[in-house]
Structure formats: structure tokens, C-alpha cells
């Protein structure tokens, strides 16, 4: 099989697939976006392991419920069924959009890999090539995300914001119909080959996106993470910089414990990794806004970062917590609906799980 390592074979199954040592079964949601994402993952897993990769389609509550996402959130609506399938041995890896993962731990499952990140920015998709600056007074813009609502109204208080749900095509179909524009993640549109509908990509420094946006999370059963052939497949997929950034951003969310109704944006990046050893830094900027966009607070910090630091997950989480604590000191809890965890001192750092949260606290979920 080795001579065919690059001719990756990916098959799709809507029915259960029996365990087979020659096959890696990759659990995914069935939406066009989820399948596009997981197909890329499957091709890389097949190439790295020499095994056949099969996509096992799993339907989640987030796919079937028609309730507004901001009301559905809080329980991992896009995630639980996939995790159940993984724990039940119905698939070997599960692919999620990282921003959909609750910040709390999931017993028996670990974050096996965070692949190279796609464009983390939000996209304005407007009729007639319009941008945020050129949308007419009172234009109608669709988004289901409280963060996006707040960030929009902060810049254009005149806009009329409308709730938005459904898959990417359903959302885009409203542009030029009942809406002038919608906001979606660049990552999803780019992965679907729909970049042409984007009329503006919002700069992350001004409009920080949802923690983890644009990143994928590959989950694996904890017992299997270090075992062949999963270990090789995961190592081939993992991008340490993407993982560091996503973990730092999510630690902001975990520390602020915001539930899904609080507008929080966070954007982290590794800088200077190509330069002299020891010069790289992980920087993180986060923003909390009031729901109506009239009040916003931002904080930014950086820490030294090294790809080979065995403690780098903690570095990411410490950075995220530090930025969250700064936001709280600035009064974040007085402008937005937050339920912050008391910040942990250095001695307490070991008491958090990999999401930077205290064990036992309820997980939260972002919806966009
Ligand atoms: N909120 C749902 C969601 N979860 C992940 C993505 C795709 C982008 C990504 O991978 O972060 C989307 C759609 C969107 O925000 O437009």
C-alpha cells in the first residue's frame, strides 16, 4: 500500500462501518461544509497512515433543530452526537469546527490534532459588492451570532440586524432577497469554494473573530491517541501554531465563562517563529462588547513561545487567562453577560483541565 501513499482514497458512508484494522473511520457531520473539511482531513490521514479513510456521517442536534442557535447553545449541539459515536467505537477520529466545541473536557476523549488553520476572519457577503462602509443607511444584515451583532452595531449603529440560520447556501440565498448582506466565517466559504461571494474580510485587529474560528479539532479516544496508526495520523495533521492560538483564544472564553450570549472575540497568533530560536511569541488580543455594541473593551498580551516546549499547552492557557483577567479588571462583567471564574494563581494552575477551566464547571459553547 505504501506506493500509493499519495493517492488518498476517501469513501463516504451514511451507515455504520465495522471496525477494520485497514481502515480509519472519520466521524463528521453531513453538511456540505463539514464534509469538505473532513474530506481534507481524511485525505491527509490516508496519506500519512497508508490506510483507507472512510467518512462516517453522523447527524447532530444542531443539524436537525430549527431553533435559533443562540438559544440552542450551551450543550455542544453540533458536537455531542459525534462524541457519542467516537466513544461508542463507531468511528476512530471525529472532525469538528473547533469553535463549536464546548470549553470543558470530555471524559475519554482528547484533542488529537489541530490542523493548519484556515482564514479566521469574518466575511461580509453583501449584494452588489457593498462593504461595511458602503452599505446604505439602515441596510438589513443577517447573523445569528451575538458577537457579530455587537461588532456590527459598534461600527454601524444604523444597520438593521436579522437572525440567520441554516447551512451556508440557505444563508447566502437571502442576500439580495430579503437581506442586503450576511456575515459568515471566511473559513467556511473558502473551504466550500465560495470565496467569490465575499465582499469584505474584516481585519482581525479591529473585528476579532470567535475563539477558534477557522480551526478544526480532530478528537480521538484517549486510549488510542498514542497508538498506531492513530498516532502517526494525528502527528501528520497537527499544526503547533494553530493549536497554540486556538487554545489561547478558548482559554479567554473558559475564564470569562460567558455562555453563548456574550459577545467575545479573540485572536491569537505566533509571531517570529521563522527567526532566531527563542524569539517566537504567542500574542493574543480579545474583545468583550455589550450586546448592543455601545460598549467595548479590548486587552492584548504576549508570551514567549516555542514549538518544542513540552509545557506549551499551559503557556497558551496562561496567556488566555491573563487576557481574560485584564478584561475583567477593566470591567468586562459590567458591560456583558459574563459569569467569570475567579482567576487562578500560579499555584492553582494545575487544577484546570486542558480547556483552562475548573473541573466540574458547566461547559459553554459559542455559536459563531
Ligand atoms: N457558527 C457555526 C459555525 N461553526 C463553524 C463555522 C465555520 C467556520 C469555522 O470553521 O470556524 C460556522 C459557520 C460560521 O460561523 O459562519
UniProtKB/TrEMBL annotation:
Keyword Transferase recorded? yes
Entry-linked PROSITE patterns = PORPHOBILINOGEN_DEAM
PTM-bearing positions, type S-(dipyrrolylmethanemethyl)cysteine: 260
**Free-text comment on the cofactor:** Binds 1 dipyrromethane group covalently.
A Pfam family hit: Porphobil_deamC
Chain intervals for the UniProt region annotation (Disordered): 339-368
Cofactor(s) required, per the database record: dipyrromethane
Gene Ontology CC annotations of this record? cytoplasm
Q: List the InterPro entries.
A: HemC, Porphobilin_deaminase_cofac_BS, Porphobilin_deaminase_N, Porphobilinogen_deaminase_C, Porphobilinogen_deaminase_C_sf
User: What processes does the entry annotate via GO biological process terms?
Assistant: protoporphyrinogen IX biosynthetic process
Q: Which UniProt keywords apply?
A: Porphyrin biosynthesis, Transferase
Q: Name the chemical reaction catalysed here.
A: 4 porphobilinogen + H2O = hydroxymethylbilane + 4 NH4(+)
Question: What's the domain of life for this entry?
Answer: Bacteria
An MF annotation (GO) of this entry: hydroxymethylbilane synthase activity
Q: Residue limits of the Porphobilinogen deaminase C-terminal domain?
A: 246-328
Subunit text = Monomer.
Any extra detail in the entry? The porphobilinogen subunits are added to the dipyrromethane group.
Q: What does the UniProt record say this protein does?
A: Tetrapolymerization of the monopyrrole PBG into the hydroxymethylbilane pre-uroporphyrinogen in several discrete steps.
Record's protein name: Porphobilinogen deaminase
Amino acid at each position: 500500500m505504501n506506493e500509493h501513499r499519495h493517492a488518498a482514497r476517501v469513501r463516504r458512508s451514511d451507515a455504520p462501518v465495522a471496525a477494520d484494522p485497514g481502515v480509519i473511520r472519520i466521524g463528521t457531520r453531513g453538511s456540505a461544509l463539514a464534509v469538505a473539511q473532513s474530506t481534507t482531513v481524511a485525505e491527509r490521514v490516508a496519506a500519512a497512515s497508508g490506510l483507507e479513510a472512510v467518512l462516517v456521517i453522523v447527524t447532530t442536534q444542531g443539524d436537525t433543530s430549527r431553533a435559533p442557535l443562540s438559544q440552542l447553545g450551551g450543550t455542544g449541539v453540533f458536537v455531542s452526537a459525534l462524541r457519542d459515536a467516537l466513544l461508542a467505537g463507531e468511528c476512530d477520529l471525529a472532525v469538528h469546527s473547533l469553535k463549536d466545541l464546548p470549553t470543558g473536557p470530555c471524559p475519554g476523549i482528547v484533542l488529537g490534532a489541530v490542523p493548519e488553520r484556515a482564514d479566521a476572519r469574518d466575511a461580509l457577503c453583501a449584494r452588489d459588492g457593498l462593504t461595511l462602509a458602503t452599505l446604505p443607511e439602515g441596510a438589513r444584515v443577517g447573523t445569528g451570532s451575538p458577537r457579530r451583532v455587537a461588532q456590527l452595531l459598534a461600527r454601524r449603529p444604523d444597520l438593521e440586524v436579522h437572525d440567520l440560520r441554516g447551512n451556508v447556501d440557505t444563508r447566502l440565498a437571502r442576500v439580495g432577497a430579503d437581506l442586503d448582506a450576511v456575515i459568515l466565517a471566511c473559513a467556511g466559504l473558502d473551504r466550500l469554494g465560495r470565496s467569490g461571494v465575499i465582499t469584505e474580510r474584516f481585519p482581525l485587529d479591529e473585528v476579532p473573530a470567535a475563539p477558534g474560528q477557522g480551526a478544526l479539532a480532530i478528537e480521538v479516544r484517549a486510549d488510542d491517541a498514542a497508538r498506531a496508526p492513530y498516532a502517526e495520523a494525528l502527528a501528520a495533521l497537527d499544526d503547533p501554531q494553530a493549536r497554540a492560538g486556538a487554545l489561547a483564544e478558548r482559554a479567554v472564553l473558559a475564564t470569562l465563562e460567558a455562555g453563548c450570549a456574550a459577545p467575545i472575540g479573540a485572536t491569537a497568533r505566533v509571531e517570529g517563529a521563522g527567526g532566531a530560536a527563542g524569539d517566537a511569541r504567542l500574542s493574543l488580543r480579545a474583545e468583550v462588547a455589550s450586546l448592543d455594541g455601545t460598549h467595548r473593551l479590548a486587552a492584548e498580551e504576549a508570551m514567549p513561545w516555542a514549538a518544542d516546549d513540552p509545557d506549551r499547552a499551559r503557556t497558551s492557557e496562561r496567556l488566555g487567562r491573563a487576557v481574560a483577567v485584564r478584561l475583567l479588571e477593566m470591567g468586562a462583567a459590567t458591560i456583558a453577560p459574563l459569569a467569570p471564574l475567579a482567576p487562578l494563581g500560579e499555584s492553582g494552575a494545575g487544577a484546570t483541565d486542558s480547556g483552562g477551566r475548573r473541573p466540574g464547571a458547566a461547559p459553554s459553547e459559542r455559536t459563531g
